[in-house]
């Protein structure tokens, strides 16, 4: 029998191997982000196990960043790195484990369906060829990757540039939340579909500023939550620096140059099996106007997308108690505009579950496409 082998030297690869000697007792640890203590993301290949009954244990799962994320969680696996499926997974409060017999010699396991840096580059290259799209390099990350902004509008449409609403979408500040970039891919595909009437109206009325990946270094390094310097980017918005959080510094600077009338920040939540939004109601500057806009947006999304719901979420932050270092709170306060954090599940949407794949890339894309409808519902009221 070929000896078992685990590899992680690829995009977002991450796991620590403690013991591979016995297929019935494979012992692993979830790896920390490269410069912080957050640990939750894993992604590795296992070779030499065709037809072998494996018993895999993640011994330190109970000390991960979000132990509540493991209750009801099912790991994802793929033979071809294209189609990812869920496998039954147990968590006893300390150890995460699954039993599985691979069909072929090489199988990949991950915390969630990955969104690779190559796919990120492919996405940018493909949409940048559309006439409505301008690609802009805002600057570089600490590892030397590009911070790319896509500026999208129909310059030939009726609305003058000065009158167009400035709509921002940013994603993946937390790099392990790969669903956030799948969401952006689905959003861009629909926005750039010349046959879609909703997209055509929005491209007339808005200039979209889209940052598909706010944290490319963390994504490639296989981090859950931080960049190469260990910064949690969604706690950097009050005072970002080029040394520690250039990703936020560059995007924030561009926002200050062009303005913001609406901002959506896409994330994933480890624990809650639902899609939901969190607003900036805790900001000192939150007004009845912003509350009405937020309610209109949520009502329109609820009416048009069964994967969205409002019953489950983070709850309301009392007025004046917002954390000003979060993107949504900083943007909402500084631009007096509608700003929402979009949360998707790592597990599944419990209201509309799919036992084969759970929540995945394709479903995140559909949700990203669906957000055009609530945008259309509120666009004329944004200012
Ligand atoms: Zn997040």
From TrEMBL:
<dbReference type="InterPro" id="IPR050821">
    <property type="entry name" value="Cytosolic_carboxypeptidase"/>
</dbReference>
<keyword id="KW-0121">Carboxypeptidase</keyword>
<dbReference type="GO" id="GO:0004181">
    <property type="term" value="F:metallocarboxypeptidase activity"/>
</dbReference>
<keyword id="KW-0378">Hydrolase</keyword>
<feature type="active site" description="Proton donor/acceptor">
    <location>
        <position position="343"/>
    </location>
</feature>
<feature type="domain" description="Peptidase M14">
    <location>
        <begin position="113"/>
        <end position="379"/>
    </location>
</feature>
<dbReference type="Pfam" id="PF18027">
    <property type="entry name" value="Pepdidase_M14_N"/>
</dbReference>
<comment type="similarity">
    <text>Belongs to the peptidase M14 family.</text>
</comment>
<keyword id="KW-0645">Protease</keyword>
<protein>
    <submittedName>
        <fullName>Peptidase M14, carboxypeptidase A</fullName>
    </submittedName>
</protein>
<dbReference type="Pfam" id="PF00246">
    <property type="entry name" value="Peptidase_M14"/>
</dbReference>
<dbReference type="InterPro" id="IPR040626">
    <property type="entry name" value="Pepdidase_M14_N"/>
</dbReference>
<dbReference type="GO" id="GO:0006508">
    <property type="term" value="P:proteolysis"/>
</dbReference>
<dbReference type="InterPro" id="IPR000834">
    <property type="entry name" value="Peptidase_M14"/>
</dbReference>
<dbReference type="GO" id="GO:0008270">
    <property type="term" value="F:zinc ion binding"/>
</dbReference>
